[in-house]
Amino acid sequence: MQVTQTVDEGLKREFRVVLEASDLDRRAISRIEELKDRVRINGFRPGKVPLAHLKRLYGRSVMVEVIEQAVAEANSQIVADNSLKLALEPKVTFPENQDAVQAAVEGQADLTYTVALEVLPEIVLADFTAIAVEKPVAPVEDADVDQAIDRLIDQNRPYETRPEGSAAEPRNRVTISFKGTIGGEPFDGGTAEDVPVVLGSDTFIPGFEPQLIGIKVGETRTVNVTFPANYLAPHLAGKDAAFEVTCTEIAAPGVVEVDDAFAKTLGIDTLDGLKDAIRNRLSGERDGLSRARVKRALLDALDERHSFALPDGLVAQEFDSIWGQITSEMQQAGKTFADEDTTEEAARAEYRKIAERRVRLGLVLAELGTKAEIKVTDDEVTRQLVERARSFPGQEQQVWDYYRKNPNALASLRAPIFEEKVVDHLLTLVQVTEKRVSKEELFREEDADKLAG
């Protein structure tokens, strides 16, 4: 094997490799000889098939396998000999002249090819002890627990049918059937029968429920509304619609006693136990949000403090993933870049920066994790796999089998575990200051983070 480096620019390396025909032929003959005792050919006793005959039958396919193995071994040796840390798998390019490739496959000529490599940059980690981040916290108050119980009451409240001739009042549950039209024409999803709605719950289109105040059983009235501009169904967004609504039942809310008996209907023995369960759930939700906020601040700080050349291949791969998701979502929503008040060119530039940020942070976290000797155990991956399988009720075995049979899919479970462990380690190095905020601020920040992507 002859290896000549032809490119050494930035993170890119390229080598010209020559695999001698004599070496390839020697490997092929050795492989064919191994076949003698395994193949069965009419007219020949086992193990007595002439080598020349085997070569005529299997020579070409064996040589293809030999070349594939030789190329893989050569590439591995290049990486090892030059102490390279690869960003992506090597890219092999064979000669465009197919006659040259054919000659090599037939064992008549050397095989020359090029292998392009992209290496990881050298990363100098910042002084993490100089980083200071705020962690917003919103402790659960008694009022928060009471509000959660009120919501449970509304969800489990009994309703009693009101007397004949009663007019619907706020908080009444009315059962309605309706037919909707836009410009006098029916539209998909605009018709339904026997739909219960609690007046004042704001579960219908804005302006729909107030127009049902005062309706009686058997009465039909027209409700005029405008679909919100950001309505999930794009073909209805911002459209004026008229609904012909008929009321079939009116029920008044019953009284719910908040006591141990009420808790038992929810599977908990006592009211105090219910309150503790609610407090723990709310605390868990807020702790998750708090961690997300401080993690975002930490990643911002890391991004500001690290600057190095990025492997083009990794950035392109990340951009393609992001862009594919964005364009798919836009297509499903029936939206264009103009609807988002931008252009495709501007959007590409924006998401390219996001891809670069993700690659940069991924490399920084990987470097830190390596230096800190952070490991992800098989047990941790298995627990994550169990959780993933549970999220697909009825398909748990299929999900389990899929991940177990696909190393890349299993690696996708390992990566976020590794990242969270590195973040945990980082939080022990940086200065973290807790900042008490209201629950509204905590959740509003979540919306802001979602917009930021």
Automatic annotation (TrEMBL):
Involved in protein export. Acts as a chaperone by maintaining the newly synthesized protein in an open conformation. Functions as a peptidyl-prolyl cis-trans isomerase. GO terms for cellular component: cytoplasm. The keyword Ribosomal protein does not apply. SUPFAM superfamilies: FKBP-like (SSF54534), Triger factor/SurA peptide-binding domain-like (SSF109998), Trigger factor ribosome-binding domain (SSF102735). The gene is tig. Its EC number is 5.2.1.8. Belongs to the FKBP-type PPIase family. Tig subfamily. Keywords: Cell cycle, Cell division, Chaperone, Cytoplasm, Isomerase, Rotamase. NCBIfam families: tig. GO terms for molecular function: peptidyl-prolyl cis-trans isomerase activity; protein folding chaperone; ribosome binding. It catalyses: [protein]-peptidylproline (omega=180) = [protein]-peptidylproline (omega=0). The lineage of its organism: Bacteria, Pseudomonadati, Pseudomonadota, Alphaproteobacteria, Hyphomicrobiales. Pfam families: FKBP_C (PF00254), Trigger_C (PF05698), Trigger_N (PF05697). It is an enzyme of class 5 (isomerase). One of its GO terms (biological process) is protein unfolding. Residues 171-231 form the PPIase FKBP-type domain. This is Trigger factor. It comes from Blastochloris viridis (Rhodopseudomonas viridis). InterPro entries: PPIase_dom_sf (IPR046357), PPIase_FKBP_dom (IPR001179), Trig_fac (IPR005215), Trigger_fac_C (IPR008880), Trigger_fac_C_sf (IPR037041), Trigger_fac_ribosome-bd_bac (IPR008881), Trigger_fac_ribosome-bd_sf (IPR036611), Trigger_fact/SurA_dom_sf (IPR027304).
